[in-house]
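Researcher: Next entry in the queue.
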Amino acid sequence: MQSRKPASFNVVSGDSEGTTWALPEDAIARLGKGIVSSGPGPKLALPPGGVYFAVQTRVGLWWYEMSSKSPIALWETERGLIASADFSPDGEWIAIANWDGILKVMDVQSGECIARMDRTEAQNIYAHVVFSPDRKWIAIANRDGNVEVLDVHQGVCIARMDRGERDTQSNDVAHLEFSADSKFLAATAHNPKVYSFRDGERKLINPNTEGTQTHVWHPETGEAIVKFAGTNFTFSPDSRLLAGATADQAMSNDDRVDRCVSVWDVTTGERVANFTGHSDWVGSVAFSPCSNFLVSMSRDKNLRVWDVEEGTQKMVYTDFEESWVEPFYSPEGELLGTVNRQDTIEVWNIECREKLYTLEAHPRSVYANWFKKFPQLAITDKKTEVGDGHTSSTLREFVCYPDPVLFLPDGATLATKGYRNGIVLWDIRDKHPLKTLLEGKRITSFTVLPSGNMLAATVQNEENVAVWDAEKPDKPIAEFTEQGHLVWRMAFAPMDDRLAVGSREGTIYLYDFKRNERLRSLTGHTDFIWSVSFSPDGKRLVSSSSDKTSKLWDVASGEQIATFPLDESRTLMGVAFSPCGRVIATGMFGGLRLWCAETLTTLLEIPQPQTQKPYALAFSPCGKYLASGAWWQREKGMDKLAIQLWDVATGEKITTFWGHPTDVQSLAFSPDNTLLASGSHDCTILLWDVKPFIDA
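Model: Structure for this entry, 696 residues:
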């Protein structure tokens, strides 16, 4: 089947990486392509043919060419926040859903919208969007774990699937799939244990949860056919059977290990076979094209082939000890498998014990994850074999988690946390990542000292803090352990040796990391610490808590100086000291406020509409200007979030930048006042030209 080339929306000539595609007005570049949609659902949409594929991100839908691993189009940027996508079986259409509950069916070649369904009344974020094989229906699973079937042509919901009573609702559907004849719909739901933290105690909210279950329904009516405690299901090609990993019936739910393989007749709801033999979790199952045989792979490193009709084991393979094998059958019935190694994916003929070829792919690349999801494509497109190890860099999860974003003193380099680990340094001129420091370390916070050196901190298991010199990854320079539950809200003191770390209980811990010494605890808050921030001289600390109070502390003595005199109890969502340290800017529900840092009297108040709750704040190096970024409220229906620039002396709004589709989490001015960097929950950084608006 011929692949349809997608319409080339938003492509900018001369920019092959997409750093300037669909940029908002006054923005210079976008660093990062946005985080791939979170949640348990598929992260990629794959059309027949394997020539192109689409990646759903919080920026929009990125289209890639398979052979070059390069972006060729960027769709749906008006709102961004793509939650899920899927192609119709013939590859002619693609269904795209965003966080607002809007689902579009679009023609791939023309980009024309074929159908639109607004599910905004349920405020859905879709973890899954799946076409039926006859493309009449789309099955969706939303953030509450509810499954529905929509009629593509009529744009209405025709069936809602009953999962029974649940203590809590969450985005827990891990797998959603139609049978080949469209007569059945199956889903795996995790029903996870949910905990709350109150008064320092961890409490189970849903003690009666039944754990992971797989459901099978009639998609047109929502009628339940069968439910069983199992995972990793697959339909047989003839749609008669469904197989999945299940647990020993004698095991309790708390001790459950899905090491058996069960087969169900989906027309009757009866289990027709149950295979035992694996000693650990079964992670993959696949039917042969004739539906008579079933292959399963387990963490015990054994791959077993079962005769479904006879109910017996046909073969066992035990020679794949180094890596996990994803087994699958070719259309001709050959048993094949992919092996994911450090920088490559190997394709094997398992029956002949022969490696067919090797595909180059970084283990954290979308490309590698793509072959895990669709292993059969490893035999349909061998052109991917030509990669040299660098061609897939575009597809790596080289996104940032930009809270904070900080310029280095040279003004030519920007630092931000990597999404998964490390600190990513970006070249501002070339708009490319230079390198990653502390790669492999899950960084909670970091700071850039005036010398340009960077310090980073991590929180592990909520009780341990480690401080690192970013240029020396071998060993932390200090480590601390607390009895309380630490959180990610922490701050380094500028030009000093202090670190402040908040806790769930409200205590703030101060450390001297150069001497590896715990100094004291700041007590006064009674709930989760929302933010902590040092003054420029490091002598004072501002804190904000979920107890809806904010406090100013003396760092040397650990004594509380004052509680912010708010007209009503509220949480300071953002806080920033002016470069001189005499002014404190705060953002909260209701607006911006500038305070005298000595007396905590209000200098200036700037009311804000409810649609623009200020969260991120940053003073310009000269202290004359303040930038504020908004917190996203889905119920307000904002397409983009505001970044506003203010005159500190008068409170006058100088300009507004509109760019990110969700929370602006961090802001930073370049040392020369010419650029503003904004980091967002979409996991990108936008660079803004502020020269036309301020006196640089």
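Model: The longest strand covers residues 400-407.
Researcher: Noted, moving on.
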